[in-house]
Amino acid sequence: MATLDSNRAKSRFGVAYVRAVCSQAGVGFQETSPDEDVLAVDGSVEFEIASARVQVKCTSQFRLKGGPTATWPIDESWRQRWKRSGVPVYFTPGS
């Protein structure tokens, strides 16, 4: 039986979390195949009018205390890929 390493497990958890939030909101979520992640985009939230591309990150390294904010360093290669996108890419923590 194969198991995912810690980073891949967190990645899967983050996408599953976003998918669950989308389901509760009544919108679809289309995941980008890991082999096709050329724009540093994990998926698209499928709203009625248009889709929104999103990059999802999940970590166990910090806790939110005193407010609903957190920061995450953005890899420069992600930023360069997002610039090539014809539509905005949203960066969201998975949990």
Automatic annotation (TrEMBL):
One Pfam family per UniProt: DUF4365
Domain (DUF4365): residue spans on this chain: 12-90
Protein name (Swiss-Prot/TrEMBL): DUF4365 domain-containing protein
